[in-house]
């Protein structure tokens, strides 16, 4: 039976998975943004488009490196939800 406690557990687990998947993609971009900002501060180059391309490339590289793991992680969650669905409904 779907009780409020079970619903909260499902939402917490879903939010945890979303946070993990987003952090895997955002943190490399943040680090690259910091490196580019330090470079811009050191050289006094104030070009705003300079920071966009490195962050984009690092994010795409992170997707390439962790895409298979992220897809597997998400599929494991989906399988567990479908497995629990039979017990939650009846």
TrEMBL record:
InterPro entries: Bac_export_3, FliQ. The gene is fliQ. The lineage of its organism: Bacteria, Pseudomonadati, Pseudomonadota, Betaproteobacteria, Burkholderiales. This is Flagellar biosynthetic protein FliQ. The keyword RNA-binding does not apply. GO terms for biological process: bacterial-type flagellum assembly; protein secretion. GO terms for cellular component: bacterial-type flagellum basal body; plasma membrane. Keywords: Bacterial flagellum, Cell membrane, Cell projection, Cilium, Flagellum, Membrane, Transmembrane, Transmembrane helix. Its main location: membrane. Role in flagellar biosynthesis. It comes from Pseudoduganella plicata.
């Amino acid at each position: 039976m779907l009780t409020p406690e079970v619903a909260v557990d499902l939402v917490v687990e879903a939010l945890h998975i979303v946070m993990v998947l987003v952090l895997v993609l955002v943190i490399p971009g943040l680090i690259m943004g910091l490196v580019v900002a330090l470079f811009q501060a050191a050289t006094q180059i104030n070009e705003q488009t300079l920071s966009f391309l490195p962050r984009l490339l690092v994010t795409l590289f992170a997707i390439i490196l962790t895409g298979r793991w992220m897809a597997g992680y998400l599929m494991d969650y989906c399988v567990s939800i479908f497995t629990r669905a039979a017990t939650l409904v009846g």
